[in-house]
Amino acid sequence: MSFKAKIQEGAKDRNSPIVLALDLPFENPEKKDKILSRAQGILTAVHPYVCAVKINHHLVLPLGTFNGVQQLVEQIQGHELLAIMDAKVNDIGATNQVIADYYYEAGFDALIANPFVGWEEGLKPLFESSKRLDRGVILLCYMSHKGACEGYGQTIIDPQTGKRKLQYVSFAQKALKWGADGVVVGATYPQKISDIKKILGDKVPIYSPGIGAQGGTVETALKAGASYFIVGREITMSDDPGKAARWLCNSLKGL
Ligand code: 3DU
Known about the structure:
50% of the residues lie in helices and 17% in strands. The chain has helices at 3-14, 32-46, 57-78, 93-105, 119-132, 148-151, 167-178, 190-200, 218-224, 233-236, 241-253, and strands at residues 18-21, 52-55, 82-89, 110-113, 136-142, 155-157, 164-166, 182-185, 206-208, 228-231. The two termini are 29 Å apart. Ligand 3DU binds next to strand 10 and helix 10.
């Protein structure tokens, strides 16, 4: 089963389209055990209210992929949740392949990649090995921060047609053509979500980060066409992460 189908089924079964971004602030790397147990504690409290967990460098750097992070991936999957690695894969094809091999070996179900590197000798090897292993590739399409307009918002000349188009429109079209399992579009840009939704329809789901701490809301992202909501600090930095996740999950049910 494809990653896209697995997360759709998981979100339906669990009645939650929330992806937990399991991000923690900087901590002295010597305190690895403290970092790991804090992450495990959040997972234990939050798992009933999410359909997947996204890991970023916040945990890979201090814990290491095959020590702490692999244990977390096992815990995530033990709760029947999917594990996404937000590596923003962004290099030449041969390097991308090695990045994917390591993260898939650690058990991740999907990787986030950056379409700026293109297809041939870029993301093609990543897509091919991911499809072979039934893992997912989610592409950045329009990031949530202010400077996103400098890259994802540029007007480009399409090298194939010679016509002008917006960079993020081109990335959404590539997500369709390349068979991506999803695209990331910031909740802080609801208009971009709806522009991209018009291109993707129901073929490629939109994952929307930037909720809470970055100023976006689930309501506007949902109305604009997002299917999944990536939420980090709003949950992880709460005094009661389980309660924060439950509240968010229930607020989505009312929409
Ligand atoms: O702002 P939050 O704490 O909810 O975290 C959002 C997470 O999603 C974090 O890991 C960040 O690196 C990632 N992300 C974005 O916030 C925006 C993007 O466009 C892509 C990824």
